[in-house]
Amino acid sequence: MNLKHAAPRKKKWPLYCFYAAVAMLLLAGVLYLVFCQNINSEFGHNEEYFGEQFDELYALSGIDEDVFSPILAQGLSALQTIGTQEEISAHGVFSRYGVDLSSYPEAHSVSAKAEALAASIDGNSGYIWVAYVQEVYDAQGELVSASGNEDARILSRWSVEKLDGAWTVTEIKEKP
């Protein structure tokens, strides 16, 4: 009796998995390039000023909301402050963002937005990259002063340290 044994069929699912994995890697690469292009198109002119620190923006580091939300809120509060130099200095390192009435006596209101772009913590120190816009208006709603706009936000790097159990901004660096 001459029985031929049928050759076992190769399973094709490992090959499909391989193709799916390659496609996912290609998609991830394209998305990363789009992300980098967006950062570069908006903030690329800052690269020379920040030097190697600018590369941190491309690291896709996550933002720990529990740590950075209070810090971002402090910065936003300072961005929205109009007052005397004494009142502004109460914001500490963020006092650079307050609107001093001796410089802008016509200042009546402030519109400000701040967004955390990237952040990293290593032990008791780290940084957060922030993009912000600040617009100061007089009583008639006319623009008096502005830092950035919706199309060209200001890029800022805030160094943070854990001091007495609380995360605190110790240094702010941005292109003048």
Largest β-sheet summary: 5 strands, antiparallel
- N-to-C span: 92 Å
Order of helices and strands: HHHEHEEEEEE
CATH architecture of the largest domain: Roll
Q: CATH class of the largest domain, anyone?
A: Alpha Beta
Compute the average pLDDT: 82
The tally of beta strands, per DSSP, is 7
Query: How many helix segments?
Result: 4
Could you characterize what this model shows?
- The protein is of the alpha+beta class and 176 residues long.
- It has 2 domains: 13-52; 62-174, Nuclear Transport Factor 2, Chain: A (Roll).
- It is built from 4 helices and 7 strands.
- The protein has helices spanning 13-43, 47-50, 65-79, 85-89, and strands spanning 82-83, 99-100, 109-122, 125-137, 143-147, 154-163, 166-174.
- The strands form 2 sheets. Strands 3, 4, 5, 6 and 7 form a 5-stranded antiparallel sheet that branches.
- The model has no long low-confidence stretch (mean pLDDT 82).
